[in-house]
Amino acid sequence: MKKWKYLTMTAVMGSALMLGACGSDSAQNGNNAETKTPASSEQDTADKKLQGAVAGDGSSTVAPIIEAVVEEYAGTQPDVKVSVGVSGTGGGFEKFIAGETDFSNASRHVKDEEKAKLEQAGIAYTELPLAYDGISVVVNPENDWAKDLTVDQLKKIWIEDGTPKKWSDIDPSWPDEKIVYYSPGTDSGTYDYFDEVVLDGADLASSATLSEDDNMLVQGIAGDKNAIGFFGYAYYLENKDKLNIVKVNGIEPTNDTIETGEYAPLSRPLFVYVKNSAMKDNEAAYDFIKFTLEHGGDMANAVGYVSLPEEKYTEALKTLEGLK
């Protein structure tokens, strides 16, 4: 597999991945998902050449995994065109609700209001787990003071209180310099998750630069000594020569601490949501998602995320088979 290139436009052997901007541990089916008897055929679709088109959208956190999967899938099914936009988890669900996509990548669970809209649109769906991530808090390499932050300190840094904040407001021994903020955009599942577990629903610092493009966040933080930001673990690993990682409550995000949940509260699962009717009626879409679940763990590890235990992929494949 080729090394992941951040948010590139990829067209490989007939499959296209079109990347634009960014995005509880158990997999769940939508309440309106139909239960089907598992398909009895054991035919090996890997040997069957398919034609068709598959469309997805959603989280930029999940995007590196999907890009890797698309590149690998192109070698097995060169006549299937897979196009995946990256408008963030929320933006991806909007397109899913509108019936524009066969699957939607997400760095959080579907929200209640999104569930209601899906039901109104008559779209039955299923949530499938894909990998684990740890939201990584990062600072500029010249920042030699904010090496380990508590959740309370993160709250104090990030919650809007109507006054400009300086690093010295967090710790008097730190520089008397204004904090510069970089955050995923509000359509991002990463933003939603950080808002839930760190901000407790409070407003994020109003001076923050928000972007669905995590590459822009990386560039901003790398260019300002007083900057701080957060995004998916894979983006830190890809740019760790430009950034410093911050421990949270004394724990640094690593494959082990993310998988075990020790890196709390910023460890989280990643998902792909599939439209049940597409899995039944679009053979190419079913085959691509099946390939994703079969190879997603290896792809997740390759691009810097953490694969699920093998039994979770096995369970997800059985769930997918039941939709066919």
Automatic annotation (TrEMBL):
Against PROSITE patterns, the record matches this protein to: PROKAR_LIPOPROTEIN
Q: Does the keyword ATP-binding apply?
A: no
User: Would you say which domain of life the source belongs to?
Assistant: Bacteria
The keyword Transport appears for this protein: yes
Function (record text): Involved in the system for phosphate transport across the cytoplasmic membrane. Part of the ABC transporter complex PstSACB involved in phosphate import.
Q: Which family does it belong to?
A: Belongs to the PstS family.
Q: What is this protein called?
A: Phosphate-binding protein
